[in-house]
Amino acid sequence: MGKVPVLSYSGFRTYSECPQRWKFLYLDRLPEAPRSYFSFGRSIHSALEEFVAPLVATPSGGDGRRLGRQTTLLDFPGEAPRILSVEELLALYERHWVREGYSSPEEEKRYFDLGRDLLIRFHRVFSAELPMPLAVEKELATTVEGLPVHGIIDRIDRRPEGGLEVLDYKTTRELSLRDAAESDQLTLYQMLVEGNYDLPVERLTLYHLRSLTPLRSPARDRDRVADLAMRLGEVADGIRSDDQDPTPGPYCKWCEFRRLCPEFREVPSQDRERVAELVRRYRELRARPSPLPSELEEVTREIQAEAKRLDIRRLPGANGSQIHLRREARWTVPLPEALARFPVHGVRPPSPPSDDPDRVALRRHDPRLPPALRRELLALTSREVSWHLDLEGPGAF
Fold first, then answer.
1. Residue 274 covered by a domain
2. Per-residue pLDDT band at 80 (split at 50, 70, 90)
3. Which of 186, 184, 327 lies closest to 247, judged by CA?
């Protein structure tokens, strides 16, 4: 395997959805197409960052993260910083406005007016009950079970009870308490804050800006943190093993890299006749009552070689038929050897049905196991890849 990657939430989410899209964004560094909702969100976030930043009090010796007691405005004598007026907040908004990504001047104006109304209402609510911010747009890094992670957190507040609240602003149309309770992003942010601050995280909040609704949930328990740590490890293993295969899904229709993706890339004109002939041969062999295994294996190898050469997953034939190459990958371990390592470290081995190779391989990132055992399981783990040919369209069965 290659070097352990540094994961952000966006990188983790992108790879989980589609390793090929992750490759386009994080390895090839292809730019994402500007979109109105991205530009709108950036504009609002930038204005709020500059609006809240003066309320963050910093001691002379640093940012106070490792002090026994966190510092806020209440800990400093003298006059508190002045809250910017609503007119000043709107001036910040105009200065930070991002104009790209809108389909028309009319759409841009609708978004701009929505943002003005949102910020006017935010100023009223914010000023009525000032929070105790410790940080805004804070970039943090830590390690989770040996994996480096980082992120930029919109706001970290000190709670009256003494702990911390992690807030993430959202400008989406709809948001619910369930979104906050199930958010992997908030769980990762809790990991980052706990890895950098002495005080405990008490609350995680998605702040829905359109309705000015703080959607709050308690800090994640140990099992929730462990679950995300395992999934971060699985993504890291996939990246380190150069697994960049596309995972088709409903989001493909909006992906700006669709024409570059092996799932949808067209066969070059000079290769179409040869590819169609391979599809015809495969279809005819599969239609026979008892095809010769040797002939089927030979044409299958030719199809796989052609797909690899052209870097495509769909080979078109005649009359709408096609062959779709579908990949299946699994992480596995030699089961007897892996199970024998558990008692050595004082851990009870998994029992049926949890003792199959796939499940045992997943335990390599389980933070509840001793680190030495996890390292041994990781050393025993390997990735098995198999390809399946699905005949689609006329002649499929």
1. no
2. low
3. 327
What total of structural domains would you count in the chain? 2
Are 210 and 344 within one domain? no
SS3 307: helix
CATH number, position 20: 3.90.320
Q: What is the pLDDT of residues 202-261, one digit of tens each?
A: 999 999 999 999 999 999 999 999 999 989 999 999 998 888 999 988 889 889 999 999
Same domain, 344 and 214: no
285 domain-assigned: no
pTM attached to this predicted model: 0.85
pLDDT band of residue 58 (cuts 50, 70, 90) is low
What phi-psi label fits residue 49: left (phi over 0), alpha (psi between -120 and 50 degrees) or beta? alpha
CA 80 to chain centre: 39
DSSP letters, 348-360, are PPP-TTTTSHHHH
Last-in-domain residue among 189, 221, 237: 237
Is-contact 55 81, C-beta < 8 A?
Answer: yes
Q: Residues 79, 188: one domain?
A: yes
Pairing of strands 201-208, 164-170: parallel
User: Which residue segment(s) compose the domain that 341 sits in?
Assistant: 334-380
Whether 200 contacts 165, CB under 8 Å: no
In a domain, 220, yes or no: yes
Residue 267 gets the label, from left (phi > 0), alpha (psi -120 to 50) or beta, of: beta
Tokens representing 187?
A: 């769980």
Examine the domain organization and report whether 343 and 218 are in the same domain.
no
Q: Is pLDDT at 67 greater than 50 in this prediction? A: no
Cβ 190 vs Cβ 166: under 8 Å: yes
DSSP string, 172-233: -S---HHHHHH-HHHHHHHHHHHTT-SSPEEEEEEEETTTTEEEEEEPP-HHHHHHHHHHHH
